[in-house]
Amino acid sequence: MKAPFNKYLYLGFVLFGLYELFVKHSALEAATQFGIALIFDPFVTEQPWKERPMWQKGVLIFHLAVVAGLFGYEVGSSDATIGFIDGLKGN
After folding, report:
1. pLDDT tens, the chain, 91 aa long
2. Is the pTM of this model over 0.90?
3. What is the C-alpha separation between 10 and 86, in angstroms, rounded?
4. Residue 78 — φ and ψ, nearest 5°?
5. Which of 43, 67, 81, 89 holds its CA 20 to 30 A away from the CA of 4?
């Protein structure tokens, strides 16, 4: 049985995201690569969401949470938000 090509694309983007996160220390680039990986669903794409096993849903939701967390970390730790926070405090 041949594995669908999107499994390889998914794995490639996940590995590239891990490289960006742990080698280059770029959370935003890692979030981008992990987000692109979600486009290439590694499971059976013809199966509707409601019929998928709970573990597959969990994996995809966890993956999405990692993307959102990395994006939120990058936005929250950015120097551009310091001026916005100072404006809210009235400084």
Report:
1. 455 789 999 999 999 999 999 999 999 999 999 999 999 999 988 899 999 999 999 999 999 999 999 999 988 887 666 666 666 666 5
2. no
3. 41
4. -75, 145
5. 67
Q: Which tokens hold the place of 6?
A: 């999107």
Q: How far apart are the first and last CA of the chain?
A: 64
CA 52, CA 77: separation in Å to the nearest integer?
Answer: 36
> Which ranges of the chain would DSSP assign to H, the alpha helix?
5-22, 27-39, 54-76, 80-89
